[in-house]
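Can't paste images in this forum, so I'm doing it all in text. The chain is below; anyone willing to post the predicted C-alpha cells underneath?
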Amino acid sequence: MPDKINVLMLVDKFDYHGSGVSGPVRNYCWLLQRIDSDRFQVHLYALRKRGRSAEIFSREGVGVGYLGLGRFNPFTWLIICRLVYRHGIDLLHLQGYGSVLFGQIAALITRRPAVVKEEWVDPKISAIQCLAESALSWHATRIIAISKYTSLFLQNKKRIAPQKIVHIPNGIPLNQFRPDRHAAAAQRAKWRLAPHHLVVGIVGMLHENKGHRYFLEAAAKVVGKLPDSRYLIVGDGEERDHLEAITNDLKLNDHVIFMGQQLDMKDVYPMMDIFVVASSTESLSMSLIEAMACGCPVISTACGGPEEIVSHNVDGILVPVRNAEALADAIRDLMENPEKRGRLGRAAALRSQSFDISRTVAQTQEVYARVCQGTLSTIRGRQNALR
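Text version of the structure:
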C-alpha cells in the first residue's frame, strides 16, 4: 500500500461574530469524518484560540489544534513551517486570509504544494488583501471555489487565473436530514407552537449580512393579515440584543422566538412550514441545502450562491436582497397556498440530492491526489535528508 498523504488543514478560525456554529465548522466535521484514512492523514489546525465551536468538534469526535495566534503575528509563517516539519506534511490546505497569506509563504519555504479553499465572497475586501493573495496565488496548485459565484469573485476581485480554480460545492450528509414528523411535533410542542401555527424559520449567525432585520420587517407585514404565523430565529451572535430590540419595536414579541444555537438541526427544520434565507451575500448557504433536504419550501434572496441551488418557482422562491416587502409577499403567498408549499417542498428535497457530502469528499480527495502526483517522492526525500 502506498504511503498516506499527510495534509495540513489550516483555517483562520471557526468562531464568527459571537457564533460557535457555522458552515465551516459543520463542513470540516463532515469532511474529516469521511475522508479516506487509508489514503490521507489529516491534521486540522486553527490559527486563533479555542472558542465555542470546540464543543461541536468534540461532540463529533474531530480533533483540532488551536495555535492561539493574533491576527497579524509576524511569526505565523514560522509556526506553520514547524507544523509542516513536525507532522511530515505533504500538502497544505488553506482557508481564511491569514492561513492563505502565511500558509503560502510557509509552503514556499518548505517547498510543499498548497491548495486554497475559498468559501466567502467579501464585498468589502481591501485592495491590499486582493493584491497579496493574487501575488501568492501563483504558488497554489489549485484553488477550490464552493460555487460559481465564488469562482467569479476569485477571478474578478483577486485576479486568480481561471485554470487554477476547481469548483467543488460543499455538501451535507443527506441521510441525516430526513423529515421526522414525530420529532417535529415534539419540538413544536416544546416551543409552544400549536398545530394551526404557520411557522417561518431563518438559520444562521446573528450578523447583519444574514438579513435578520429584513426578516423581522417582513414578519411585521405578514402578521397583520396572518396573526397565527410564527417566526423562528435559530442561531446566536453579536446582533442578538439589537434584533430583540427590533422585535420589540415592531411589536412582534408574541410571534418571534429566538431559539439560540441548536446542535441538532435535523430536528429543527421539520418544525418549519417555510424556510427563509435573507442574506445580502452567500457563497452557497448550507442551511438552505439542509432545509431543502428536509422538504421545506424555501424562500431565498438572490444573493449569489443560492441562485445556483434554487430555480425560481421550481424548487423555491427567489426575492431581491434587502427588500422586506418582496420577502413578505413571498411568505404570504406560500402561507395562503398549501398546495404550492407542498410542490416546492417536494421539488426542494429532490434538488438537494445534488449536494451529498460524499461527492464533496471524493472531489476533494481527487484534488489532493492530483496535486501530490509526482511530488511525494521528492518531498519524502527532503524529509529523510533532514533527519
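The first helix runs from residue 23 to 34. The chain has a mean pLDDT of 92.
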